[in-house]
Design goal:
This protein is α/β, with parallel strands linked by helices. The protein has 15 helices and twelve strands.
Length: 434
C-alpha cells in the first residue's frame, strides 16, 4: 500500500490543486487541507506553505494578537499575502473619551505595529490588500448612526495609510486598494504615500462599493444618490492621487461604478446632465505608465481620453480586459466614441504584443433593433440574446428609438471590422508564443 507522503512533491501538489478546485468555495478547500494537515507531521510540514500563505488583519487588539503570534511562529515565513479589513462596531470601539478603558481604540497600537513593520513580521510578504466597505443605509436607519460610522471609517482609513507609509523600504509587488470611498484624504496627496507606491508592480484600485452587489431597492438608490457626484469628482483625481505615482507598474486594474451610475440616472431620473458626465470622466490621457503590460477596466465609460490612454500604451499591452464597461449612444451630447474605436486604436500598433482581450458586458435589456442605412453611427443589428442575433457590445441608450432601455447591446459600423482585425493579431501573437 502506498502512502501520500511517499509520493513525489509534484504529484502531491497536483492532489492539493485538485482538492482546491473541487471545493465549492475557496474557504471549503482550505478547510479540507487544514483537516488533512492534522493527519501527521510530514503532511503538516508539506502543506504549511499553502495553508499559511495569507493572513487577515482587522482593527482590534484580539485580531492583532493572533497575527503577531503567527508572525513569531515558524509559519510566519510562509505568509505572502496580507489583507487588512475594516471592522467597525460601535459597541466595541471608542468615540471620544467614552468608556476608554473598557474598549479598544479604533486603531489599536498592536495593529499599527503590524502595518508599520510589514516585513519585520512577514519577511516574504509580496501582496497587500486594504479593504474598506462603505456602510449603506436606507430610511429605516438612523442618519446620525450612519454619519458616525462614516467619520470613524474615514479616520481609520487615514490611520491605516499613515502606518503603511512608515514602510520605507518595503518589498511589496502587489497592492490592492478596495472599497476606497470618494474622499480625497490628505494622505493620498502626501509624498510619503507616493513613495510607498513607486515600486508597486501590480496595482488594483476599487472605488466605493459595486452597485451590482446591492439590491435594486432603497440600498441601491441611496448609494447612487449619495455617492454619485462625489464619486465622479474623485475619479477625475485618480491620476494625481494614484496612477501617476506607480511608474513600476506592469499590471493595472481599476474598478468603478461609473457606468452603472450613468445607466441608473438615465433610466430612473431621466437625467440629461450628460455634458457634466463627460467633464468628470477620469483624465486617462494624462496617465503614462512606461512598463504597463496588462490593464483591466471595470465599470468605466468609453471616451476619447480612454482612447488616448490606450493609444499611448498599445505598443506594450499584452492583456486587456473590460468588465461591465460601456459606450454611450448620444451623438448630440458629444458621445461619439464606439467600441470599434477602441479596437481600431489597439489594432493600429506597429507590432502589437497583445495576446489576450476579454470583454464582459453589463446585463442589458434585450430588444430587437431594426437595421438602418449604413451611416457610420447608425448601423444596428439584433441585440445580444435575440434569436439568431449577433452578440453586440454594451451601449447606454441616448437619443434613438430605444431611449427607454437601461442599456443595450448593439454593433455599429466598425465594431465588428476592427474587433475581427484585433482578434487576428491576437491569434498570430499566440501562435508565435508557442
Amino acid at each position: 500500500m502506498g502512502y501520500l507522503n511517499d509520493l513525489p512533491d509534484e504529484l502531491k501538489l497536483l492532489i492539493v490543486e485538485a482538492i482546491q478546485n473541487s471545493a465549492k468555495t475557496e474557504k471549503q478547500g482550505r478547510q479540507t487541507l487544514l483537516n488533512l494537515s492534522g493527519t501527521c507531521s510530514r503532511t503538516r510540514s508539506f502543506l504549511a506553505p499553502i495553508l499559511f500563505d495569507r493572513v487577515t488583519v482587522r482593527n482590534g487588539s484580539k485580531f492583532a494578537a493572533s497575527v503577531i503570534a503567527l508572525a513569531n511562529s515558524q509559519f510566519g515565513q510562509y505568509v505572502k499575502n496580507l489583507r487588512f479589513e475594516r471592522s467597525l462596531d460601535p459597541n466595541n470601539y471608542t468615540r471620544g473619551g467614552e468608556d476608554y478603558f473598557d474598549r479598544d481604540p479604533i486603531f489599536p497600537t498592536p495593529v499599527n505595529f503590524i502595518l508599520s513593520n510589514l516585513h519585520k513580521h512577514f519577511p516574504n510578504l509580496d501582496t497587500l490588500e486594504i479593504r474598506f466597505e462603505i456602510l449603506i443605509t436606507d430610511n429605516s436607519r438612523e442618519n446620525q448612526a450612519f454619519r458616525e460610522d462614516r467619520i470613524d471609517g474615514l479616520r481609520l482609513m487615514e490611520r491605516v495609510y499613515e502606518a503603511l507609509c512608515k514602510n520605507k523600504h518595503h518589498r511589496l509587488k502587489t497592492l490592492r486598494l478596495l472599497g476606497v470611498p470618494p474622499v480625497d484624504l490628505a494622505i493620498f496627496s502626501s509624498k510619503e504615500f507616493h513613495d510607498f507606491l513607486k515600486h508597486i508592480k501590480s496595482f488594483y484600485i476599487g472605488l466605493g462599493m459595486d452597485p451590482s452587489s446591492l439590491s435594486s431597492g432603497p440600498e441601491l438608490s441611496t448609494y447612487l444618490a449619495m455617492y454619485s457626484w462625489s464619486d465622479e469628482n474623485f475619479c477625475s483625481k485618480l491620476p494625481s492621487l494614484f496612477l501617476n505615482h506607480i511608474p513600476s507598474a506592469t499590471q493595472l486594474r481599476i474598478s468603478t461604478s461609473q457606468a452603472r451610475r450613468f445607466v441608473f440616472r438615465r433610466f430612473h431620473w431621466n437625467s440629461h446632465a450628460q455634458s457634466h458626465e463627460r467633464n468628470v470622466l477620469p483624465p486617462w490621457d494624462v496617465v503614462h505608465l512606461p512598463k504597463l503590460k496588462s490593464v483591466h477596466f471595470d465599470g468605466i465609460i468609453i471616451c476619447k481620453k480612454l482612447l488616448d490612454f490606450l493609444n499611448a500604451h498599445k505598443d506594450r499591452l499584452e492583456r486587456i480586459a473590460f468588465g461591465d464597461c460601456m459606450a454611450v449612444d448620444d451623438i448630440k451630447e458629444g458621445w461619439i466614441e464606439t467600441w470599434g474605436d477602441i479596437f481600431k486604436v489597439l489594432a493600429s500598433a506597429e507590432a502589437s504584443p497583445l495576446r489576450d482581450l476579454q470583454i464582459s458586458s453589463m446585463e442589458s435589456s434585450v430588444a430587437r433593433i431594426p437595421r438602418t442605412p449604413p451611416d457610420h453611427y447608425d448601423t444596428y443589428v439584433e441585440t445580444a440574446g435575440s434569436p439568431g442575433g449577433l452578440r453586440g457590445f454594451a451601449y447606454s441608450g441616448g437619443r434613438r428609438e430605444h431611449h427607454g432601455l437601461k442599456s443595450h447591446s448593439a454593433i455599429y459600423a466598425g465594431d465588428l471590422q476592427w474587433h475581427s482585425a484585433l482578434r487576428d493579431i491576437i491569434k498570430r501573437n499566440k501562435i508565435r508564443a508557442k
